[in-house]
Amino acid sequence: MTGTSKHQSDSQKIQDKMTEEDVQAIVVDNGPGMCKAGFAGDDAPRAVFPSIVGRPKNMCGVFRSC
């Protein structure tokens, strides 16, 4: 049995054991100031953190030549 076949059979075993009650939808709100994540049906998000995007000052090759 190869690694891929073993992975597929293990994955299938897990899926066979799962019911709809075991599966929860994830909700992600990627807003301009804060990113919030949690499970559908919960009263509040489980994780809240700032939406910060940065890049190096000397970024050569992508947006400008050096």
Furnish the topology, listing elements before pairings:
Layout: H1 3-17, E1 26-30, E2 34-39, E3 47-50
Antiparallel strand pairs: 1-2, 2-3
InterPro entries: Actin (IPR004000), ATPase_NBD (IPR043129)
Pfam family, one: Actin
Organism: Phytophthora nicotianae P1569
Quick structural summary:
It holds the Pfam family Actin. It catalyses: ATP + H2O = ADP + phosphate + H(+). This protein has about 70 residues and is of the alpha+beta class.
Helix percentage range: 10-25%
On the 0-100 scale, what is the average pLDDT?
80
Stretches where pLDDT is under 50 for at least 5 consecutive residues are none
End-to-end distance, in Å? 52 Å
- The secondary structure category is alpha+beta
Output the radius of gyration.
Answer: 21 Å
Largest sheet: 3 strands, antiparallel
The sequence of SSEs as H and E is HEEE
- Treating each run of at least 4 consecutive H or I residues as one helix, how many helices? 1
Catalytic activity: ATP + H2O = ADP + phosphate + H(+)
Protein name: Actin-11
Pfam families: Actin
